Amino acid sequence: xxxxxxxxxxxxxxxxxxxxxxxxxxxxxxxxxxxxxxxxxxxxxxxxxxxxxxxxxxxxxxxxxxxxxxxxxxxxxxxxxxxxxxxxxxxxxxxxxxxxxxxxxxxxxxxxxxxxxxxxxxxxxxxxxxxxxxxxxxxxxxxxxxxxxxxxxxxxxxxxxxxxxxxxxxxxxxxxxxxxxxxxxxxxxxxxxxxxxxxxxxxxxxxxxxxxxxxxxxxxxxxxxxxxxxxxxxxxxxxxxxxxxxxxxxxxxxxxxxxxxxxxxxxxxxxxxxxxxxxxxxxxxxxxxxxxxxxxxxxxxxxxxxxxxxxxxxxxxxxxxxxxxxxxxxxxxxxxxxxxxxxxxxxxxxxxxxxxxxxxxxxxxxxxxxxxxxxxxxxxxxxxxxxxxxxxxxxxxxxxxxxxxxxxxxxxxxxxxxxxxxxxxxxxxxxxxxxxxxxxxxxxxxxxxxxxxxxxxxxxxxxxxxxxxxxxxxxxxxxxxxxxxxxxxxxxxxxxxxxxxxxxxxxxxxxxxxxxxxxxxxxxxxxxxxxxxxxxxxxxxxxxxxxxxxxxxxxxxxxxxxxxxxxxxxxxxxxxx
Length: 577
Prior knowledge:
Layout: E1 2-5, H1 9-19, E2 24-27, H2 34-45, E3 51-54, H3 58-72, E4 77-80, H4 84-88, H5 90-98, E5 103-109, H6 125-128, E6 145-147, H7 155-166, E7 173-179, H8 180-183, E8 189-192, H9 206-218, E9 222-226, H10 235-246, E10 250-252, E11 280-284, H11 298-301, E12 305-310, E13 327-330, H12 333-344, H13 352-379, H14 388-399, E14 404-408, H15 413-419, E15 430-432, H16 445-455, E16 461-466, H17 467-472, H18 475-485, E17 490-495, H19 513-517, H20 531-537, E18 541-545, H21 551-563, E19 568-573
Parallel strand pairs: 2-3, 2-4, 4-5, 5-7, 6-7, 9-10, 9-11, 11-12, 12-13, 14-15, 14-16, 16-17, 17-19, 18-19
Antiparallel strand pairs: 1-8
């Protein structure tokens, strides 16, 4: 190992972050991190990475790291205060784990509580922050790996290992419980480990690839479904190449941008009507959330062969999965798809007419669907309150092209997917805040949008929020961070003044007391807040939109304000669901 000179142990930690390509240390402040702040300030004065981001809230810090990882594939460092900070960010930590996204979370701790060796006594409250068995056990199911280093003698190797493990497939968050005593140590020399290469990517058994290629070539009505293939941007053109070779229709629920929406083989988001006629269903990068539920229900309507391809096709993190399958392929789709195309091409002799006819059929269906959706939206253009289809059609027209959308709606999710797709023609243009892999809890959208904006500062970022989802977000912390660091983004609130999904309970009690009295508990949010004024409180632009004719002009005004460096928020009043 190389021995480096430092002013204190914490400077060596910052130097290791720099050598590992960490761009940002995102912190929800805790007094134990003073040494890291000192040397981050030193690196900033020298124009060196990582830069410091003050997040004001643990949820914001972790979801910002999530958004940055979704946009770049690379882990950042997050700091949270001892115990309380860890627990405050536990849901967002679980989201990183479920969505297979890398991050290094460092949580503070103290080993001594009377006349500390380093840093002075922080006060008796540290006694109550000491957790029997260590803090790690509180979130152990939601991290790939965790450690509590005991010495600075080998701590840099430990930190390096944490970043290596976070970045190795299947990716995920790692946790270090780091004590004040180690951070404050007045070391002058530290041993810096050599950075390890990235392990080779996961490739499928070549024999299985050949077998699947033959199945696809022989199938009469195959279809593909995906949810998070776009987490590997290089997999997108490979999927296009395979589908064009074999005329395979692609359905998706877009956790990422997975397949160009303007491609004639993009079939939208509702695969159920097509399953009964399918003879092969290939689920790529969606094994945690296939397009049917309950798991065995597909067997009631389809005799299709079912194939799952994923880095973890069995979804081993879950106690139950239960989806039927005829073939499971463990693979990085960015490697497996080109191999499938290469294997299938020589098998196509004599199949050209059948493949071309299938392409014509699906191209016609692609056009039919888009015309149907557009006509539905146009038929509602004068509805009052505003119809969500009309809202989404206008969002699509205003932000299509280079904008990035971050999605966090529930009731309007399918409408968003159908109508806001003009920007989703190339990788890295869309991210689901909750549920790129599986549902991971509401309240992440604004932080993810900030993380994406941090990674893509020149791009327009639009957060699509249900009003219920918006209420779950740490809004003041997120908008304050946007203002402080010059990261303006647009929030569009789909405001139906309710948690509309909750109203579905009436189907269980069709003649019950709630229906008779019109009292749907847990549904309506009244009195309605003036969300637009929240944006104004942080120096931003806010507007409430109630007239359908004002939707597009308001969107254009909001985007113009972004160009002036101001965050924007549109509260669009929709019909109650």
